[in-house]
Amino acid sequence: MPDVSRVLCAVDLTEASRRVLDCAVWWARRHGADVSVLHVHPVVLTTPDTGSVHDEAVRTTVAGHAPLDPEARRARQRDVERFVEDSRTDGLQVEVLLDEDASIADAVVARADALAADLLVVGAGTDPSSEHPVLGRTTADLVHTAPCSVLVVPPASPDVANTSLSGLSRIMCAVSLSDQSQSVLDYAQELASGSTAHLTVVHVVELSEVATVAYDFDAHREARLQPACDDLVDLVAAVVGHGKPVEEIVAQGTACTEILKLAAEESVDLIVVGRGSGRRARGVGRPTAQAVARESRCPVLIVYPIGLEASRPFADSQAYRDVSRPA
């Protein structure tokens, strides 16, 4: 599992983001890391030539406002300080940051890059018209672009007691059996070992719909399932070792659907999944990690691929230069 020395937590000062802060603090204490708490004030940018609202700003901003004047900025800074006050404890370094940007996601990614954050903790967002938590556009962008692992924290749910990671008793690790799977499972195993939590390792075989018509489906399923079972056993043996209590499950169906169903049945406290290379889950229209985070009732840790060079897309932008300066 990679070392975690800096946790970046993005908050919007709502009650839901207090659970996000609780998760970030829990993670930092467990790893002896420092915490940076970031609040982004969304603004609408105008072009210098015409004064018109920039198309990109309109498209990416959540709720654009005018930039903060010095007095308003000081007041907002005090609001964020009060928000984190109860989370300050001896031995835990917590800094408060306030940025302004037309895109909240861009500002958070720039800060994560500038701080060399090892983990980004964000809320999932909600849709009042739905009975399920829904991944907001900002968080969806962060899952895709953040230069580090991302912990997505859902809103409170009456059927999930532990949405703030006050302690882990059951962890589910979903693996694709790709090259990244070993590092994802290693991360989950270290978390389970340190928390004395039960670990379940899941792989979902997505069977070809064409085979149901053109081939012998039973033979096709058997040809896919048995090698997957063998590969999962080998992966667990290589990462966890023999003789350790790990539950191994090979399911068939749509990856996102099966992972969430098993997580509910197992009453897991945390789902660990790799970000992957962008392969999309059938019927969902988005990569599996994003799809799982979108609907999960418990926190989801999306592990950044080990060995993937972190790009610095904002290194030459005004946003990056702004957040690189002390707040």
Main β-sheet, spatial strand arrangement: 3-2-1-4-5-10-9-6-7-8
By DSSP (H or I, 4+ residues per run), the number of helices equals 11
Radius of gyration: 21 Å
Proportion of strand residues: 15-25%
Q: Uncertain spans, ≥5 residues at pLDDT below 50?
A: 50-63, 128-132, 277-286, 308-327
Largest sheet: 10 strands, mixed
The total of beta strands comes to: 10
**CATH first level of the largest domain: which class?**
Alpha Beta
The pLDDT mean sits at 79
Order of helices and strands: EHEHHEHEHEEHEHHEHEHEH
Summarize the structure in short.
It is built from 11 helices and 10 strands.
What does this structure look like?
It is built from eleven helices and ten strands. With about 325 residues, the protein is α/β, with parallel strands linked by helices. It has a ten-stranded mixed β-sheet, sandwiched between helices. α5 (about 135-145) links the parallel β4 (about 120-125) and β5 (about 150-155). The chain is elongated. Mean pLDDT is about 80; it is low at about 50-65, about 130, about 275-285 and about 310-325.
